[in-house]
């Protein structure tokens, strides 16, 4: 499934080149066999996509990626213990969450927490129980977001050996035999307003995008505003909304990873992942 956001050109500046941003999001749901029931025949795993990690031993990529997925980055602004101190109602007042993101040193645990709380608030507003935080789900989500950036793919099927499916990735962090699902997205790091024409860094003579030539740079998202933008896009997609509002899912963890889109003037973007499970 792909969503396209078009930046519409005007005739005001003929030098303003057309800009078409492609925003892709996918959703995936899997269910492992109920251990209390007669086991079903295991469906053969799909073959990995043809694109592999170039000039690198696949086993090395496998081991490095597992380690990255299990070890979340350190943060001086957000610790796992703070999930017990904040709720979806109090998190928006947390000052660090309202700071603009410096993409040279992203605080991933804080951004992951922002996505978690914004998502939980959407559930609560519709009469559902908020999600319970799962560190294991966050590990699986962060590892997949990191892999998608590191190995340049965008899919629920990973190109990393041993992590091809969501089930594989959950097994690696210690979650098995549970109903689960995954949402993924690639999103802008700047606070771009859809439908507006922009001037590129080349046109501006500086490393920024703006709505007027050499004008005020479009600012980076804050941690909270980026989370709201990502969750809003998921929520407006029926299949992703279904995962977010599925009452069978009790636990959730989010993961994000920053990259520069070399296909469009190195614009700052993130790949984000949500992992949902019925048990921790």
Automatic annotation (TrEMBL):
Membrane-crossing residue ranges in chain numbering: none
Pfam families: CAP (PF00188)
Domain SCP: 119-264
Source superkingdom: Bacteria
InterPro entries in the record: CAP_dom, CAP_sf
Protein name (database record): CAP domain-containing protein
């Amino acid at each position: 499934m792909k969503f396209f956001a078009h930046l519409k050109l005007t005739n005001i500046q003929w030098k303003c080149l057309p800009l078409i941003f492609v925003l892709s999001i996918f959703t995936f749901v899997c269910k492992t066999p109920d251990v209390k029931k007669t086991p079903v025949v295991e469906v053969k795993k799909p073959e990995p996509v043809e694109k592999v990690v170039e000039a690198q031993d696949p086993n090395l990529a496998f081991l490095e990626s597992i380690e990255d997925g299990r070890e979340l980055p350190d943060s001086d602004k957000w610790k796992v213990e703070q999930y017990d101190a904040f709720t979806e109602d109090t998190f928006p007042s947390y000052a660090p969450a309202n700071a603009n993101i410096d993409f040279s040193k992203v605080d991933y645990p804080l951004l992951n927490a922002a996505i978690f709380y914004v998502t939980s608030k959407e559930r609560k507003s519709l009469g559902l129980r908020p999600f319970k935080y799962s560190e294991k789900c966050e590990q699986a989500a962060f590892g997949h977001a990191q892999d998608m950036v590191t190995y340049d793919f965008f899919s629920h099927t990973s190109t990393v050996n041993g992590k091809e499916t969501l089930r594989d990735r959950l097994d690696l962090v210690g979650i098995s035999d549970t109903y689960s699902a995954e949402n993924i997205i690639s999103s802008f790091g700047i606070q771009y307003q859809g439908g507006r024409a922009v001037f590129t860094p080349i046109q501006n003579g500086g490393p920024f995008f703006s709505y007027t030539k050499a004008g005020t740079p479009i600012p980076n998202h804050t941690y909270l505003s980026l989370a709201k933008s990502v969750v809003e896009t998921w929520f407006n997609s029926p299949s992703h909304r279904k995962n977010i509002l599925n009452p069978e899912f009790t636990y959730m963890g989010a993961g994000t990873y920053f990259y520069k889109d070399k296909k469009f003037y190195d614009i700052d973007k993130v790949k984000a992942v949500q992992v949902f499970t019925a048990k921790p």
